[in-house]
Amino acid sequence: MTAYFEIRNLAVSFRTFEGIHPVLKIEHLAIERGETYGLVGESGAGKTVLALTILGLLPKPAGIIHSGEIWFDGDDLLKKSEQELASAYRGKRLAMIFQDPMSTLNPVFTIGQQIERVIEQHQGLKGAARTRRAVELLDMVKLPDAKNVLRKYPHELSGGQRQRVIIAIALSCGAEFLIADEPTRNLDVTIQAGILKLIDELQKSLRISVLFIANNVSLVNVFCKNVGILYRGKLVEEGPSALVTRQPQHPYTQTLISAIPRDKSEKLRFANIKIKPEAPQGCPFYSRCPIGVEQCMQGEPMLEPVEDQQHRAACFLVKRD
Ligand SMILES: Nc1ncnc2c1ncn2[C@@H]1O[C@H](COP(=O)(O)OP(=O)(O)O)[C@@H](O)[C@H]1O
Ligand code: SF4
Ligand SMILES: [Mg+2]
């Protein structure tokens, strides 16, 4: 039995001028129907590559999937042809929103033209019915004065308004699984909160599942049931968000959480870490780990249950029982 959404033994690399560069190695990640899962990692950790791999959009031939299964509602997406993914999954059942709304919206067409084109393509609606549906979608993402917004060009909207339009377009075809790749990254903090609240409300009202990708752990702990911490393409800690964020076990998660400023002493604790040499055979975090020991250079720690038995961490020094 697989979960509603489940990744198994996924290994992805990129072919570069310097050779094959491993980017992702995820042994297991599962999301239940109707759950919001938060995936957190710093820039370059492999978050976008994971999103693209799920959707079958990994750039080819540079991107190589060495192994793995990505189960979605009983089917392995990695076994689907490009034609099947395009006609039956992407946009229809799986939707994605990107961090930069301007790269998704075309600056030379009005919002109305862009939303209505998608509605016509996927739902076959025309004329007044098509416009009515567009207005409904803008209402759904809480954009006031929808009729007026439809007449505007992307540059006439604020960043937050544009991101709402993108969410409306992404969900226009009734997708049941949404991948939100750092949707608030380029927005002001005050606007970020509104977009997060909107995604949370839509997840509940539409009963969709969400893979919410962020580079900051403080964005996910409020509304994600489970959280995974990605470091250099590997999950180093995973479990219920309250446990991972309040009792982080892996030194990397602790670093991320202490980077959310609380008091001066905590900031200092991690400010003086001496960068050590890489340990090619050992723990991927060794070079930056404040507590790493000789043993950490010898082998790679597995993602295994920690003392509370409810969440998992990949570190030799965490307490297991
Ligand atoms: N088209 C590509 N060719 C080669 N390497 C790439 C390509 N896209 C991404 N990468 C590499 O894959 C790694 C993960 O990138 P990415 O998934 O974009 O990180 P994140 O989204 O977590 O910031 C990075 O080291 C990046 O340089
Ligand atoms: S295994 Fe060692 S180097 Fe890796 S995170 Fe744990 S203590 Fe640090
Ligand atoms: Mg990214």
TrEMBL record:
Keywords: ATP-binding, Cell inner membrane, Cell membrane, Membrane, Nucleotide-binding, Translocase, Transport. The keyword Translocase applies. CDD domains: ABC_NikE_OppD_transporters (cd03257). The keyword Cell inner membrane applies. It comes from Thermanaerothrix solaris. It comes from the Bacteria. This is ABC transporter ATP-binding protein. Belongs to the ABC transporter superfamily. One of its GO terms (molecular function) is ATP binding. PANTHER family: ATPASE AAA-TYPE CORE DOMAIN-CONTAINING PROTEIN, OLIGOPEPTIDE TRANSPORT ATP-BINDING PROTEIN APPD. Transmembrane segments: none annotated. Residues 7-257 form the ABC transporter domain. It is a peripheral membrane protein. It holds the Pfam family ABC_tran. It is found in: Cell membrane.
